[in-house]
Input
Amino acid sequence: MFAHVGSAFAAFIKGILRRLPRRATEMSKLSNGGDTQRLWTDASSERARIEGFPAQIRYWNWSGQYIGYRAQEALFLVNGRQCGYFAEGDEVYACSGEYLGEVRGANRLITNLDKKTWKRTIANPQQLKSASACHNISAKEMLLGYEDFPL
Output
C-alpha cells in the first residue's frame, strides 16, 4: 500500500516540477528584477535532472540578448548547435579554438579585449535537440576593456 502511495506521490512531484520553467517564465512577465533569470535557470536545471537531460544554464550577452545554454562544458545555441566550450571554468572558446568571452555574474557573457588573441584546442561541435528560446533582458553598462559577446 505504501509503495503505491510513494509512486503516486513521486509522479505528483514530477508533474509539479515539469511546470516550473513555465511558471518561472510567467513570473518574469510580472517582474523585472534580476532574480528572474536565476528562477528560470533553477527550474530548468531541476527539470533536466529529473528527465535525465544534462543540466542547462542559460546565458545572455552584456546587451541582454539571449545567447544559448551551457550543457556540461559546452555552449549551445537555441537550435542545439554547439558554438563553443568552457575552459578554466568561466572562459568560452569557439569550437575552432578562438577565445570568445567569459562569464560575468551568474548568467552574462562578455569578451575581454586583452584575451581576444588567446587560443585553445579545437573541439568537434556537437548537436543537441533545439531548445526553447528565452526573452531578452535588460542591457548592462559596458565595462572598460571589454566588448559584447559575439552572437
